[in-house]
Every structure is written in structure tokens, then in C-alpha cells.
Amino acid sequence: MRRADRLFQIVQLIRGRRLSTAEYLAQRLEVSPRTIYRDVAALQQQGVPIDGEAGVGYRMRAGFDLPPLMFSKEEAQALVAALRMAQPQMDSALARHGEEAIYKILAVLPGTARAAAESLALWAPLGGLDEATRERLQQLRLATEQRQKLRVLYLDLSNTASERVLRPLGCFFWGPVWTFAAWCELREGFRNFRVDRIQQLEVLDERFRDEAGKTLADMQRAEGWP
């Protein structure tokens, strides 16, 4: 990797994390920590607002931006491949916005990179989610973003129905099945639900705030997520 490319990658990696150690950057870029120290010092001398120091970690000060990026042929192909594989498992709105985003990216690529991306011989099988699950997935996603409580009628795997008020925390894709995690006010604990087994879903006007012990991070810690 040319040094100019490495400096650019260092900036990108530091921007994408709250704190990046020299060891982490060295591992990602396959160089020594000493090289990272020199490169970060050079970036700081050039006016890039990187805070931190060797042995502690680096972070980018707010407000710093880079000129628009240009994707390589391989990067453009990766974006197209990712969208094609994900679209059948997305809700309709996300799938549509993803396609619009790809069109915008392809429109500004050089001819060879655009042709390589558009002619990519990789497709995901048709099928994917049924329309009812797509609609529920979109409702869950928006309610999670807007911190709105839900009232659901749920049918578990033993075909026992229950009505619950939930605080939605996030949606997860497990191969053919979507689940969503929530804080259940009925059980006063974290629960996971299959989206395709929701019988009725109502998004309530009542909003909630994150509370200690009831967040997605709390659930992940409690369940031993990596």
C-alpha cells in the first residue's frame, strides 16, 4: 500500500470509531505500531484534527470531513452484491432506498467501474419475505428509531397467544427468519420475538426513553453477546 493510501485509510478508520489505538490501526493496515505513530504525527502536522497520543488512542475532532470518495471497481461490485443479497430480506422502503442509493453511486463512477458493477454476475434468489412480514418489519424499524412503544398480539411456537406492550430495541436477521428484541412490560424483562409470528401490531403514541437496565446494550451484555 502506498503511504498516501495508508494515510487516507488511517483517517477513515479513526473517523469511524470513538477511540482507535495504534495497535488496532496497525493490525488493520498490516504495518507496525511505530509506522502508525509516524503517520499520525504526519497527519497532525498537516492539520488533520486528530486528538490523542501513542499508548492511549486517537480520535477525530468533530467537524472534520474529507472530499467526496471515489469507489474502485471492486468496491462498487461489493456494494451492488450486498444490495442484491439484502433486498429480498428488507422491508419495502429500505429496499427501495437502497436501490436509489446504488443508482446514485453508479451514476458518478468512471465508465469501467460502472460497467463492472452493473454486469456483476451475482444474484440473490427471489422470494424472501412475504408482504405482511415486510410491512411489520418496517413498522418495527420505524418504531425503534422513534422510540415508540408497541402493542402486539403474538403467537409463540406452541401456538399460545399473548398480548404485550413492548419497547422495541432492534431487529435481527437469522438466515430465513427476522426477530426483534424488546423490553417486555408484561414480563419486565428482555424478550425476542419472531416477526412472522406477530398476529397484530399497533404502534402506540406513547414514547419511551432509554433507561439503565432496559437498553439494547444491556440486553446484549445480559445474553453474553460478543
Please give a quick description of this structure.
This protein is α+β, with helices and mostly antiparallel strands and 226 residues long. The chain is 42% helix and 24% strand. The chain contains 8 helices and 7 strands.
> What's the β-strand tally?
7
Largest sheet report: 5 strands, antiparallel
Structural class: alpha+beta
> What oligomeric assembly is this protein in?
single chain
Broad shape: globular
Strand order of the largest sheet: 6-5-4-3-7
Write the element-wise H/E pattern from the N-terminal end onward.
HHHEEHHHHEEEEEH
Q: Which whole number gives the mean pLDDT?
A: 88
Helix content: 40-55%
What fraction strand?
A: 15-25%
Low-confidence stretches: none
Helix count equals 8
Give the radius of gyration.
22 Å
Cα distance spanning the termini = 31 Å
